[in-house]
Design goal:
Blueprint: H1 4-15, H2 31-40, H3 42-55, E1 59-62, H4 66-79, H5 81-95, E2 98-105, E3 110-116, E4 121-123, E5 142-147, E6 150-155, E7 158-161, E8 164-168, E9 180-183, H6 197-221, E10 225-228, H7 235-246, E11 261-264, H8 271-288, H9 303-340, E12 348-351, H10 356-371, H11 379-389, H12 394-406
Antiparallel strand pairs: 1-12, 2-3, 2-9, 4-5, 5-6, 6-7, 7-8, 10-11
C-alpha cells in the first residue's frame, strides 16, 4: 500500500506547505475611522501610548562580534531606528500592521528606510478567494503597493510599476521582497495580516464618546438663567431684560419689579451616565489590556490593587518586546547584513524594562543571589547590567575581551551573611 502520510509530509517539506494560507483578518472598520478615533479620543490615545513606551522606551544591542555590534549601534542611532519603531507600534495598535520600505545602497554600503501607510499596501492576493497568492515553494508571491491610480508590485525577481519592470533582482539582492519589512504583534496563526486593537474596541469607544457628549451637553445646559415675567410685560421690557441678562456677571446689580422672578435651571442627575462612562472605559481597557487605573485617577482602585495591575501590564509587555525584537532582527538587521556583505552572526535588539519597581525588584533579586554566593561577578554579567541601565560599558567590554582571550573564569564566590 502507498504511504500517503509520508508523501504529504514530503510535499510539505518540498513546497513549504500543502494548504494555502487563508485570511481571517476581514470585515474591520474603516481604517480612516480608527485613525480619527486615535486623534480625537484622549483615552484611546493614552492607551496606545502606553504600548509605545511600554515596548520601546529604550534598547541595547547584544550578541555578534564586537566590531559588528558597534557598527550596528551607530547605524541605529544615526537612522533614529527607535523613533521609527515607536511610530510603527502606533500603526500596529491602530491597523494591526507596520510596514517599512527598506532602501538599500550597495555602492555606499548603507540602508535607509521609510514608513508605508498600512492602508496603501497588502500582499498580492488571489482575485477570487482573497487569499495570499503563493509561489511553488510555498512562500508568498509579493506585495502590492497602491498610491492613487498607480500600482507597484514587488516580487521576488522584479519590481513592476504600472505593468513595467523597473528593478530586477541581482547577485547582491536575489530576493527583492526583502525590501519590504512587515511587523505585527497580534493575529491568527495562518493569517499574514495582524489584528488591530483599534478595530477591537472601536464600537465601545464610539458608544462611550456619545455618552460623554450627552453628559457634557446636559451639564452645559444646566444652571442657565430663566426669568418669569407678568403677562402684561411689554415687548420692549422683554428685549431690554434679555439684553441685560446676556451680559450678566457677579458684579452686575439688577433691580426688579416684585412681579419679575429670576432663577436658574436645575442641573441634571448624571450619576447613572457617569457609571456608564466608566463601564465602557473599563471595557476599552479590557480590550486594549491596559489597566484603566494607570490612566485615570478616579479613586476607584486601591493602591495595592493598582500596583499589582501595573506589574501585570509590564510583564505582559515582555512577550511583545521579544516578538518585535525577533522581527527587527530577521527583517531589518538581516537586510543590513546583506548590504554590508557580512556573513557573521547577526546581533539582536533587546528592549529594556521601563517600570522602576520592576527594575528595583530585579536588582534586589540579583543582589540577594550575589550575597548568598549563588552568582559570581564577571565582566559579562556587569556589562549586561550596565546595558540594561543605560550605563557606559566600554572598559568592561575590554576586560571581558581579555577574559575571553585568556579563558579566565570567575572566582568561586562565598556566602555573605547579610540580610536582603
Amino acid at each position: 500500500p502507498r504511504d500517503y502520510y509520508h508523501e504529504i509530509i514530503g510535499l510539505a517539506e518540498e513546497t513549504g506547505g500543502v494548504v494555502p494560507s487563508g485570511e481571517r483578518i476581514t470585515g474591520l472598520p474603516d481604517p480612516a475611522k480608527i485613525e480619527t478615533l486615535y486623534r480625537s479620543d484622549p483615552l484611546f490615545w493614552s492607551m496606545v501610548q502606553e504600548y509605545v513606551y511600554g515596548i520601546a522606551s529604550d534598547y541595547f544591542i547584544e550578541g555578534g562580534e564586537e566590531e559588528d555590534r558597534r557598527r550596528l549601534e551607530k547605524w541605529c542611532r544615526d537612522k533614529g531606528l527607535i523613533f521609527t519603531i515607536q511610530d510603527g507600534i502606533v500603526d500596529i495598535c491602530l491597523h494591526g500592521n507596520f510596514w517599512l520600505e527598506l532602501i538599500p545602497d550597495y555602492k555606499r554600503k548603507d540602508l535607509s528606510f521609510k514608513c508605508i501607510n498600512p492602508q496603501n499596501i497588502d500582499y498580492i492576493r488571489e482575485t477570487s478567494t482573497q487569499n495570499v497568492k503563493l509561489l511553488d515553494d510555498g512562500t508568498f508571491e509579493g506585495y502590492e503597493v497602491r498610491s492613487g491610480m498607480k500600482k507597484l508590485y514587488i516580487r521576488k525577481d522584479r519590481i513592476e510599476l504600472d505593468g513595467k519592470t523597473v528593478v530586477t533582482s541581482s547577485r547582491n539582492e536575489p530576493d527583492l521582497r526583502t525590501r519590504i519589512a512587515h511587523f505585527k504583534l497580534f493575529g491568527f496563526g495562518e493569517s499574514y495580516l495582524g489584528l488591530s486593537l483599534g478595530a477591537l474596541i472601536y464600537k465601545t469607544a464610539i458608544v462611550r464618546l456619545n455618552i460623554a457628549d450627552m453628559v457634557g451637553e446636559s451639564a452645559f445646559r444646566g444652571g442657565g438663567l430663566f426669568v418669569k415675567l407678568p403677562r402684561d410685560a411689554s415687548q420692549q421690557t422683554r428685549e431690554e431684560l434679555k439684553k441685560d441678562l446676556k451680559n450678566v456677571t457677579r458684579r452686575n446689580i439688577f433691580l426688579f419689579d416684585e412681579r419679575i422672578q429670576l432663577g436658574t435651571l436645575p442641573y441634571p442627575d448624571i450619576r447613572g451616565q457617569a457609571d456608564l462612562l466608566y463601564y465602557f472605559a473599563d471595557e476599552m481597557a479590557a480590550g486594549m489590556r491596559v489597566p484603566l487605573c494607570l490612566l485615570m485617577l478616579a479613586g476607584r482602585t486601591a493602591r495595592g490593587e493598582r500596583d499589582v495591575m501595573a506589574i501585570k501590564f509590564e510583564l505582559n509587555m515582555k512577550p511583545l518586546q521579544e516578538r518585535l525584537a525577533f522581527q527587527i532582527r530577521e527583517k531589518i538587521f538581516r537586510k543590513l547584513w546583506e548590504v554590508w556583505g557580512l556573513k557573521s552572526e547577526i546581533p539582536r535588539i533587546v528592549f529594556a524594562e521601563r517600570a522602576p519597581f520592576l527594575k528595583l525588584s530585579k536588582s534586589r533579586r540579583i543582589a540577594t543571589l550575589a550575597r548568598r554566593g549563588l552568582i559570581r561577578w564577571d565582566p559579562e554579567l556587569e556589562k549586561r547590567l550596565r546595558q540594561e541601565e543605560g550605563l557606559p560599558y566600554q572598559f568592561v567590554q575590554k576586560q571581558l575581551d581579555e577574559w575571553i582571550e585568556k579563558e579566565r573564569e570567575p572566582e568561586e564566590g562565598r556566602e555573605v551573611d547579610v540580610e536582603a
